[in-house]
Amino acid sequence: MIYKHDPASIKGFLEDTSNLKSGHTPGVFFPETVDELAGLLKGAAKEPRTFTIAGNGTGTTGGRIPLGDYVISTQKLDRIGEPVPLGDETAYITVQAGALLETIQKTVEQAGWFYPPDPTEKLCFIGSTIANNSSGARSFKYGATRKHIARILVVLPQGDLLDLSRGSCLADEKGLFRFSLPEGKEISFKRPEYRMPETSKHNAGYFSEEGMDLIDLFIGSEGTLGIIAEADLMLIPLPETIISCLVYFRNIEDLFLFVSLLKNPEKGLSPRAIEFFDHHSLEFLSAKYSDVPLNSEGAIFFEQETTSERKENDLDTLFSRMESCNAMTDESWLALDRNEQERLREFRHALPLLVNDWLSRQHESKISTDMAVPERAFRELFDFYRASCERQGFVYIIFGHIGNAHVHLNILPRNREEFLLAKVLYREFVGKALQLGGTVSAEHGIGKLKAEYLVGMYHESGIREMVRVKKCLDPFLVLNRGNLIPAAYLETEND
Ligand SMILES: Cc1cc2nc3c(=O)[nH]c(=O)nc-3n(C[C@H](O)[C@H](O)[C@H](O)COP(=O)(O)OP(=O)(O)OC[C@H]3O[C@@H](n4cnc5c(N)ncnc54)[C@H](O)[C@@H]3O)c2cc1C
Question: Where does 2-73 sit in CATH, by number?
Answer without folding.
Answer: 3.30.43.10
